Amino acid sequence: MVQSGERLVSTAAERYLLVYMIGVLLIVCSLIIIIFIVFQKRKNKLLLDKIKQQQAFEEELSNTQIEIQEQTLKNIGQELHDNIGQLLSVANMQLSIMSMQINQDIKDQFTETKNVVKDSLSEVRALSKSLNSDVIVNRGFQQSVQNEVDRLNKLNLLKTELQVLGDKTLFPKNKDSIILFRIIQEFISNTIKYAKAGTLTLVLNYNKDSLLIKAVDDGVGFDIKAAELGSGLINMKNRANLINATFQIDSEINKGTKLTVNYPYKNSSI
């Protein structure tokens, strides 16, 4: 009987010890899990902070680069207007004076030369305005695009058409309009340089929440998968990212190239 009682006591003690050890093990496991979760959250937070800092740095870098580019273009525009424009104005005035003194047999040739100088002066002034960001903001996005279209058609560089859909007052005048205009300018420049296109169609579709921009040429196109991203494509993409606009280029060999930019009004800069 004594041995049986001692055995029961021993069994109870072992059970208590087992329960105690299981409890300790559960507590230790719980602590390990909690520490792991806290560590993982802190690690994720640090990674997110690092990503945000990197994004902020890249955005600031892109902003700085664009500001430098805009200031450079502005300076070039002013130089064209003030210096080259002034020289062409003087040349035009002198030709006007000389036209009264030349012989009749070269009158037509002289008049043609004078008209070339006059047209060059108009082109320089138009180009200087398209390079000046202040003029773009004051003039408005749509009018700036229209002037660019008119300039291309006047120079016979490209048969260009502008289609406008929706209400343009949905898009306020702000600095984002400069970035969108530069994207269009870059696409036009690439079309003239490389596409060997005959026509270019621009569409500005003012929707309720966003401005949808499409530009399509009928040029030779290119293989996007095989092509390396050139500075022009990178510039357009970086500019679009700065204003939270979606950017897409579609192209195929001998099927032209299409640009699509969707700019949300709600993210516009004030």
Task: Explain what you see.
The protein is α+β, with helices and mostly antiparallel strands and 270 residues long. Helices cover 65% and strands 14% of the residues. The protein is built from six helices and five strands. Strands 1-2-3-5-4 form a five-stranded mixed β-sheet, covered by helices on one side. A hairpin with a 3-residue loop joins strand 2 and strand 3 (210-217). The radius of gyration is 34 Å and the shape is elongated. The model has no long low-confidence stretch (mean pLDDT 78).
Secondary-structure map:
Layout: H1 2-98, H2 107-131, H3 133-139, H4 141-155, E1 159-166, H5 176-195, E2 199-206, E3 210-217, H6 231-242, E4 246-251, E5 257-264
Parallel strand pairs: 1-2
Antiparallel strand pairs: 2-3, 3-5, 4-5
Helix pairs in contact: 1-2, 2-4, 4-5, 5-6
Descriptive key words:
270 residues, single chain, 5-stranded mixed sheet, alpha+beta
Task: Give a short summary of the structure.
With 270 residues, this protein is an alpha+beta fold.
Q: What's the average pLDDT?
A: 78
- Helix-strand sequence: HHHHEHEEHEE
Amount of beta strand: 5-15%
Main sheet: which strands, in order across? 1-2-3-5-4
Principal-axis shape: elongated
Radius of gyration: 34 Å
Structural class given helices, strands, pairing?
A: alpha+beta
Number of helices: 6
Q: Quick one: biggest sheet?
A: 5 strands, mixed
Poorly predicted runs are: none
Separation of the first and last Cα atoms: 94 Å
- Strands, total number: 5
Query: What helical percentage do the residues reach?
Result: 55-70%
